[in-house]
Design a protein that fits this description.
133 residues, alpha+beta
C-alpha cells in the first residue's frame, strides 16, 4: 500500500475543523467587512478600539485513535491506555486583544453560565481593559 501511495505522489494531510457556514451567512459577512472597512476609513484608530476575544474549553477527554497507536515489543506487554475518567474535568480559557495589549489569559474553572461569565467580565476583564486603554 505504501508503494502505491508513494507511486501516486500522495501525501498525508491533517484536516482542520471549521464552523459550518450557511448560504445566508456570506452576505452578512460581506456586509460586516464593508462596514468595518468604512469605519477604518472614517476613524483610522478604529481597529485599536476593537476588543477581539476568544475562549476555549479544555477537557481531559481527548480523542484517542488506537488504530495508529502501537507498542513494539518481543512479547505482548498487555499495554493499556486509560480512556475515560469517572470525574469530568474541564477548564475554560479566555483571552483578548485590544490595540497592542493582550488581556489574559484567564482561567474560568467552574462551569460557564451567563451569570459567571458576566461576573468575570465585570470583575476581571473590564478593570484590565480600562488599564490597557
Amino acid at each position: 500500500m505504501w508503494q502505491v501511495v508513494h507511486d501516486q505522489q500522495l501525501h498525508p494531510y491533517h484536516l482542520t475543523k471549521v464552523h459550518a457556514l450557511l448560504e445566508e451567512d456570506y452576505p452578512r459577512r460581506v456586509q460586516f467587512a464593508e462596514w468595518y472597512l468604512q469605519q477604518c476609513i472614517l476613524q483610522p484608530q478604529f481597529p485599536s478600539l476593537v476588543l477581539f476575544t476568544d475562549e476555549c474549553m479544555f477537557t481531559r477527554n481527548g480523542i484517542l485513535n488506537l488504530h495508529n497507536m502501537h507498542v513494539w515489543a518481543d512479547e505482548n506487554p498487555h499495554a493499556q491506555v486509560v480512556q475515560s475518567h469517572q470525574h469530568r474535568v474541564s477548564i475554560n480559557v479566555w483571552a483578548g486583544i485590544i490595540a497592542d495589549h493582550i488581556i489574559g489569559p484567564y482561567l474560568l474553572l467552574r462551569r460557564l453560565t451567563g451569570g459567571i461569565y458576566l461576573a468575570f467580565l465585570r470583575d476581571n476583564m473590564l478593570p484590565t481593559l480600562l488599564d490597557a486603554v
